[in-house]
């Protein structure tokens, strides 16, 4: 393929890969694998997943990278493994154990009653060993230097915290929470509430916004598809990722108007504030804003030139 043809192809392809990230890799590692496998430079993701966690990582490709602020991925789901009886300085199994010997609860009803206190709008303090920056330095770097790290509390929302299975001393639970929640802190705080101590021993993200593990392809399968040149089968069109937006179908004339930044007339009737402009070929062309005064759609963000 000629360089010019390759450049045009890469500027046209836009979509989403939902990857089942394995334990041990950073989100940046996965982006690097996808960048190498696709040959595209414009690769991003919608939310970092810790190296010791596995599960759903939403990867954006091509012009879809500019969709990150519009994708509704503010709700996350996790399968968490919480080990009772010990306290870790990192709130997970990677850290130094600071305390052991806590009396592990045997009564499941007691555990479930404590879990109820961690649903709804709650306040949590992130772990000192986190990537949150303090005056330009990451908190975990300061913590490793032995410095006292004081992080401000944050308000989060836990939609559900469900008991799944308990084999003392380890609890398996499902958590659905707002973006920015530290599940490690929930595990630690649950242990404090039960008086026995606890840390997060395992974590799998099961949901990121509308995307779940059912949408995800294991990274090993994706790497094989890169080698075979068949990875496109896993690509979700950018337009399909915005199902909550009103769809405005374009013809050749209105598509040209949008691409040149011109407004187009809206059909009679009620409209959402924002809409997605889709070409006759099903490609996402732009995000639009509805102007009630003139009953027109105004280009807000154009994805193709």
Structure description:
The protein has 305 residues and is an alpha+beta fold. It has three domains: 3-71 and 211-239, Pseudouridine synthase; 75-208, Pseudouridine synthase (2-Layer Sandwich); 245-302, Roll (Archaeosine Trna-guanine Transglycosylase, Chain: A, domain 4), CATH 2.30.130.10. It is built from seven helices and 20 strands. It has helices spanning 3-12, 27-38, 108-116, 139-144, 183-194, 219-228, 252-259; strands at residues 15-21, 43-45, 54-61, 75-84, 87-88, 97-99, 120-124, 133-134, 137-138, 154-167, 170-178, 198-208, 211-212, 217-218, 236-237, 246-249, 264-265, 274-278, 284-291, 296-302. Strands 1, 2, 3, 4, 7, 10, 11, 12, 13, 14 and 15 form an eleven-stranded mixed sheet that branches. A five-stranded mixed sheet has the order 16-18-19-20-17. The chain has a two-stranded antiparallel sheet with strand order 5-6. Strand 5 (87-88) and strand 6 (97-99) form a beta hairpin. Helix 2 runs parallel beside helix 6 (219-228). The longest helix has 12 residues, at 27-38. The chain is elongated, with a radius of gyration of 23 Å.
């Amino acid at each position: 393929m000629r360089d010019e043809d390759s450049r045009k192809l890469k500027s046209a392809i836009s979509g989403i890969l939902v990857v089942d990230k394995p334990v041990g890799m950073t989100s940046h590692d996965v982006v690097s694998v996808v960048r190498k496998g696709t040959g595209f430079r414009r690769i991003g993701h919608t939310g970092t997943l810790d190296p010791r966690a596995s599960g759903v990582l939403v990867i954006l490709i091509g012009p879809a990278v500019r969709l990150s602020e519009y994708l509704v991925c503010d709700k996350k789901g996790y399968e968490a493994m919480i080990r009772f009886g010990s306290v870790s300085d990192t709130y997970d199994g990677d850290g130094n154990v600071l305390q052991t010997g806590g009396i592990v609860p045997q009564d499941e009803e007691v555990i479930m009653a404590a879990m109820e206190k961690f649903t709804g709008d709650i306040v949590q303090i992130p772990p000192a060993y986190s990537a949150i920056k303090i005056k330009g330095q990451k908190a975990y770097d300061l913590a490793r230097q032995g410095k006292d790290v004081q992080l401000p509390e944050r308000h989060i929302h836990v939609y559900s915290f469900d008991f799944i299975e308990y084999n003392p001393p380890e609890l398996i639970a499902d958590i659905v929470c707002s973006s920015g929640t530290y599940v490690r802190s929930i595990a630690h705080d649950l242990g404090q509430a039960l008086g026995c101590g606890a840390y997060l021993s395992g974590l799998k993200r099961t949901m990121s916004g509308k995307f779940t593990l059912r949408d995800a392809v294991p990274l090993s399968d994706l790497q094989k598809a890169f080698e075979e040149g068949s990875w496109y089968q896993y690509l979700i069109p950018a337009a399909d990722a915005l199902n909550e937006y009103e769809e405005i179908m374009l013809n050749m004339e209105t598509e040209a108007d949008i691409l040149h930044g011109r407004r187009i007339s809206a059909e009679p009737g009620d409209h959402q504030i924002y809409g997605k402009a889709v070409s006759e070929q099903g490609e996402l062309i732009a995000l639009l804003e509805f102007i009630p005064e003139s009953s027109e759609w105004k280009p807000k963000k154009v994805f193709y030139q």
